[in-house]
Amino acid sequence: MQLPLFSGRLLLIVSCLIAVNAIFSTDAAGDGPPNILMICIDDLNDWVGCLDGHPEAMTPHIDALADQGRLFTNAHCAVTVCSPSRISIMSGLFASSHGSYELGPAYEDIEKLNEVPTMQRWFKDRGYTTMAGGKVLHHDFGGRLEDDIDINISKRKGGPRPKKVMNWPGGKAWDWGAFPPGDDEMYDYQLAGAAAEVLSEKQEKPFFLSVGFFRPHVPMFAPPKWFDLFDEENIVLPGAAAEDMADIPRNFQYKMGVAPTFAEIEAGGKWKSMVEAYLANTAFVDHCVGTVMEGLNHGPNRDNTLVVLWSDHGFHLGEKQHIAKRTLWEESTRVPLIFAGPGISKGKRCVEPVSLVDIYPTLIEWCGLEENERLEGVSLVPQIKEANAAREVPAVSASYFGNYAVRSRDWRYIRYANGAEELYDHRVDPDEQVNLANAPTSAEVKADLYRWIPKNPTPEVKPLATREQVRAGVIAP
Ligand SMILES: [Ca+2]
Ligand SMILES: [Ca+2]
Fold it and tell me: What's the pTM value of the predicted model, to 2 decimals?
């Protein structure tokens, strides 16, 4: 049916245009609302120069970005594994609301998220062109989310890998080494080039570009030149004292079987080699960040683009006798989080505890978009404007159903599903070596932090298998 002039539909379009113009006019530069460049990194812990996690970390581009804007030095993921961490970031909800703690199911298959728009969708519905490439959501934007992204700039992620095992036989996931010969064969590097190209062009509408790098996630293959930066024999190893484990309660990490154990890596004589590979892969991904930033800084969008960089969770390389992720200690939860762009003062750091679920409400507030009332994070705009702005809410992380860590400015409190506890005072114990949970003087601080642990969480969408229940300490081995 042909619509008559000034029909309801046309009036709707006209009023939408007025609304969009109203947003445009709020921008000081008069160029419209800011674009968003979101750089997502996979499994990057605090081994970046600006977070002082490892003395040999070589991350000049991430450090430069931190110097340009606001580095959050006490930022933590919502769940310490890829898929649920990213679902929390993109939905703005904690796992206690969406119920995902493992690698599946995908966002679009989670019932509790049926009516919950991704942040990309929220921006798209308010006038933005959405572009994405690489690993943003763990399972990509599939099913009903397919339309959330207007333009896919690169779908490849993770590769390539050599035909033969180089250092660690671990099926598809595990292994590491100097491969392939050149950067241009790396999918992350190709993605960085595609993103830089997009950023070097003037876009008609404001854009939200999500760029998801896969390294330093395993398998840790990167070209030889990145390994050449480090000396395996003399590499600095993290602290991994066995006696540190003496005051830790029985918890799921005793039965963790997802990654090689620390004992296996050490017995295989591969600890130094693995630490070197992680540093080399991190240096490589930092180079990719630099390529993207060069595209932005030499293009027409530089003065009207907000950059946010995050990693989905941390990574152990021996600390607490553990390899990889999924624990509730600082190594697993702490991540780089940086906001930079016009209007953000340079080089000041925020030490308040913040969560990756805070990104969604922050971007909405910064860009002046309509609020999304479902969001469970707290906007970081006060801390972006003034690095010392106080904040009451701590960062809460989860691992498997019913296990939580609460990180305040000074403390980490961990409570496992079986009731076991840990408490660390970061003012004097940044490596979390002395568990104060049973000290009589800890009662007050524990009670204060316990308040933030979710009390009636949504049941897990994919119930734990028996093996995982054992791991989680819910049932006996
Ligand atoms: Ca990850
Ligand atoms: Ca200890």
Answer: 0.92
